[in-house]
């Protein structure tokens, strides 16, 4: 069963803590992405990676970090430097879809809440 | 700043109606324009996408119209159904940014029975 998995589905963080969100794909895609979704804001790009051991900052990278040690995995760490981390986090990978090779496939998301 | 502007923010239509959602962009380097559908608590799913070398693309009940000179594109949903009630996002991207998506802020669509 191919796709993108994200865990956990819900995550609660105390202020000052770092937390790591998991994203795994078995689609054999090279490119992976992290987006943040806030109500009424659409999705905004945090980081992306086009190949293993390489990644680029997106529009809102401050307070976040990533790694890409394996093709199938792209974890996101929300650090204590991120002042307003409560949001819905979506991971995506890009590859050949039904109609276009640029299709991005999204995971089910992780909802992070700061207590 | 928002690279893709989407309107309206919300839309209510009766079953069978044709909701239209509009998007505009400024960056002429964009060369791929997808539309995503999202249900509450779920990740977005690709509906339909278009490249700037065509003016219209139709897949099932969903149609994209694209106006390259005006830098605008729109989604039409034919014969809308209550099951189409969801949030719709337009996006734009190019190879310059590794095909990372620039999203509009979304349109919440409600189709009443």
Report on the architecture of this protein.
The complex is a heterodimer of chains A (115) and B (113). With 115 residues, chain A is mainly β. Chain A is built from no helices and 11 strands. In chain A, strands 2, 4, 5, 6, 9, 10 and 11 form a 7-stranded mixed sheet that branches. A 4-stranded antiparallel sheet of chain A has the order 1-3-8-7, with no helix packed on it. In chain A, strand 4 (31-38) and strand 5 form a beta hairpin. Chain A is globular and about 40 Å long. In chain B, strand 6 and strand 7 form a beta hairpin. Helices cover 0% and strands 51% of the residues of chain B. In chain B, strands 2, 4, 5, 9, 10 and 11 form a 6-stranded mixed sheet that branches. Chain B has 113 residues and is an all-beta fold. Chain B has no helices and 11 strands. Chain B is globular, with a radius of gyration of 13 Å. The A-B interface holds A 4, 31, 33, 35, 40-45, 48, 50, 56, 58, 90, 92, 94, 97, 99-100, 102-109, 111 and B 2, 6, 9, 32, 34, 36, 41-46, 49, 59, 89, 93, 98-106.
Describe what is shown at a glance.
Chain A is mainly β.
Number of strands of chain B: 11
Total DSSP helices of chain A: 0
Beta-sheet strand percentage of chain A? over 45%
* Main sheet characteristics of chain B: 6 strands, mixed
What kind of assembly state do the chains in view correspond to?
Answer: heterodimer
> Averaged pLDDT of chain B, please?
95
**What does the main sheet of chain A amount to?**
7 strands, mixed
Number of helical stretches of at least 4 residues of chain B? 0
**Radius of gyration of chain A over all CA atoms, rounded:** 14 Å
pLDDT < 50 runs, ≥5 residues of chain B? none
Q: What's the alpha carbon Rg of chain B, rounded to whole Å?
A: 13 Å
Q: Which class do the helix and strand fractions of chain A yield?
A: mainly beta
The best one-word shape of chain B is globular
**Largest interface, and how many residues on either side?**
A-B, 29 and 25 residues
Shape of chain A: globular
């Amino acid at each position: 069963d191919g796709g993108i998995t994200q865990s956990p589905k819900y995550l609660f963080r105390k202020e000052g803590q770092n937390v790591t969100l998991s994203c795994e794909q078995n689609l054999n895609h090279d490119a992976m992405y992290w987006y943040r979704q806030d109500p009424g804001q659409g999705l905004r790009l945090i980081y992306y990676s086009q190949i293993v051991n390489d990644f680029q900052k997106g529009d809102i990278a401050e307070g976040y970090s990533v790694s890409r040690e394996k093709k199938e995995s792209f974890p996101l760490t929300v650090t204590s430097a991120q002042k307003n981390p409560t949001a819905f986090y979506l991971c995506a990978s890009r590859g050949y879809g039904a109609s276009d090779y640029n299709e991005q496939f999204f995971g089910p998301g992780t909802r992070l809440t700061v207590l | 700043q928002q690279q893709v502007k989407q309107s309206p923010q919300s839309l209510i239509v009766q079953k069978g109606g044709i909701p239209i959602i509009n998007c505009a962009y400024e960056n002429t380097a964009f060369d791929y324009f997808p539309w995503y559908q999202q249900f509450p608590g779920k990740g977005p799913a690709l509906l339909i996408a278009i490249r700037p070398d065509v003016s219209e693309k139709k897949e099932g009940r969903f149609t994209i119209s694209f106006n390259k000179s005006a830098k605008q594109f729109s989604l039409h949903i034919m014969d809308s159904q209550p099951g189409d009630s969801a949030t719709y996002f337009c996006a734009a991207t190019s190879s310059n940014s590794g095909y990372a998506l620039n999203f509009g802020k979304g349109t919440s669509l409600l189709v009443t029975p």
